[in-house]
Amino acid sequence: MKTVFMVAEKPSLAQSISKILSRGSCTSRKGFNGACSIHEYSGGFSGQNVRFKMTSVCGHVMTLDFIGKYNNWDKVDPAELFSKAPTEKKEANPKLNMVKFLQAEARGCDYVVLWLDCDKEGENICFEVLEAIMPVLNKSYANEKTIFRAKFSSITDTDICNAMNRLGEPNRNEALSVDARQELDLRIGCAFTRFQTKYFQGKYGNLDSSLISFGPCQTPTLGFCVERHDKIQSFKPEPYWIIQAKVSKGKELALTLDWDRVRVFDREVGQMFLNIVKTAREAKVESIIKKEKAKQRPLALNTVEMLRVASSALGMGPQHTMQVAERLYTQGYISYPRTETTHYPENFDLKAALRQQANNPFWSESVKALLSEGINRPRKGNDAGDHPPITPMRSATESELGSDGWRLYEYITRHFIATVSYDCKYLQTSIAFSISSENFTCTGKTLLSAGFTEVMPWQSIAKEESLPSCERGEVFVLDEVKLLEKQTNPPDYLTEAELISLMEKHGIGTDASIPVHINNICQRNYVTVESGRRLKPTNLGIVLVHGYYKIDAELVLPTIRSAVEKQLNLIAQGKANFKQVLQFTLDIFKRKFHYFVDSIAGLDELMEVSFSPIAATGKPLSRCGKCHRFMKYIQAKPSRLHCSHCDETYSLPQNGAIKLYKELRCPLDEFELVLWSSGSRGKSYPLCPYCYSNPPFRDMKKGMGCNECTHPTCQHSLNNLGIGQCVECEHGVMTFDTTSGPKWKMACNKCNVVVHFFENAHKVRVSSDCCESCEASLVIVDFNKAKSPLPGDETQHTGCVFCDPVFQDLVELKHAAMKHPMHRGGQGRRQGRGRGRGRRPGGRGGLKKPKDKMAALAAYFV
DNA sequence: GCAAGGTC
Description:
The chain is an alpha+beta fold. The radius of gyration is 35 Å and the shape is globular. It catalyses: ATP-independent breakage of single-stranded DNA, followed by passage and rejoining.
């Protein structure tokens, strides 16, 4: 029997599509990558009985990057990234092993049906999948078509079955347009980002951002925030005047009227009108207009609207909201949360979804009323062809969801109920008055039926006093007339909800990437989130955008994305050649880049005003090994050391504290060592500022401290402080922390494992001898006589921290020990690999012992 | 270390 291999874009869709196609009869199993499942069933395919095998990818299989050597920021001129630097496709998520997984499952299959999302990205993924599986398919049908594309516009029985009956083929041009987009974004984004970052970070010490990034989406996003900031700054408040009139009829009825001229910007003019009005003693009713008005029930909920409301009403940021929504989805409380669609599929069982909510005390009354009196037809929304709108899938309580989970679920559910409720109806009454020759109006609203506002109380019509019933020609007493001076107010900073709308309007990002872009400009310290989730640009953000405006406004205008997209659409439609479009657009940006580089002084002038030169930043900390003068420690992100005499900057590990390490020097370069320590885990190690950026030995990489240094004799090196193989990770070595007493500990030099031992010991040293059974270095411990926990009157003991029974109670291996081969029971890995440090030349499992120290040194120097 | 786009 032949096999048809089918692939969807994500696991959830593979499941729902195979369920529809097999009429619920498929069998499922998990794939070896742990993320995707395979659903199998048999059925008919082009007149034969076949086996169907459906699985999925997880979004893109591949991602684009420069080949390795072009990722060296120090050696590559960013201008080379426009054309010279070759790119390559890498697996998007190596952990998922997607290519191997697809090949394993597709091996020997006869036909392929591609069920990827029906947009350009989906079309591109089609070819990523084909690239992976073509070599393993059964190739015995040379003349037969074997690759098919299913085109569907919603995940409903009819649509999916129709798609299966009308299979087409994947669209190469659409896929190519995505390849072009990827290459443009990569080359342009990285070139500008690297140039800016290096230029400004080398010059200023207090930028407080580890990266000065640029991108076709994030930069316009920042632009919107700064545009509003500029409006606020340039706003000049203007005084204006209004006439307020208060009238009454009898004792109870007092009304405040609005002037039909609204306001005037000249006091004299206002005064003139006031004088006219003041000549009258009464206000005459000229007309009464009553209008029945409706407030429309909302459209079915899509992602962007959910993000807007979550930000403005729940105070939850987009990134966080998506995390919460994802959790609600995987736990089965809501439907798939990433969708553009605002229209329920035809066969969507609205009543069934509503019935699930009938017993929830928060809205049961409204739901029960709708179920007994009949639901309203939802408004016609937009069907983007991706996923149904976001709806609740089952009833939930606050206690099972947790605070934010519940708040989001509550909103989604109330919104859903609202979409099948009736519009809110109210009566609007406007009474027009004349006072002398001036006209005034009074408007009131009376609720007729609450409709959906019953479940969305924040939308309800405010209860205003109903207007009195009166007739045309009737006369009210004019109680008071005043000329009020007011001032125009500046706009406030952009709310996140407004920003999301602007991005959506200008096509910046997608429903899935909008939260990422907003998060980016926050993390890069371009904007901060203020109260009410308003986005206030920082000095850095403002200066950058003003600089772009000054040099080349197109770099920040939202139009740049759409202009590029226009070009890309030509590829998708087959009207333009992939290579030509790519070349053409890259060429434009290459010129923009060179112009930007040449004009950088314009941006620099603005930077100078807000930031201080690197030489004037920071406080003296450790001495430079070259000039022996103090280098300054710059704490602002990215923290680093700067020697103003040599004009060199040395990077440091981030996210931790840096202190001087006892004025000790690195034996290789004479730089004074510094001690890095992390706050939370309490791990610390010394490092040489020079070696950290310039690894001294062949087996070392950038970013290594003394705890990873293979110097054969230095007292701070791994060679002298390493104790044994890490109890958790594969390649780490547990290294003694000499600064940790009296709460002594050893910490893995690769992962976060920390093991406490020998608390309150007077002295702890690592011996040069090894354990007979596990090859770990022995540890020599001295205790004070009075406090010694050692047996007998012993104050000193030498032994293996893993094996020595005397040490057993003094080393907190506990849960970590369970994972260690020594304590797992059985043979484990013991036979193959000892615990010894390995790198230590004298170690039994490692190299043969060199004859003397000089030979050891020679063996390690490059 | 960089972009934006999928999704886990």
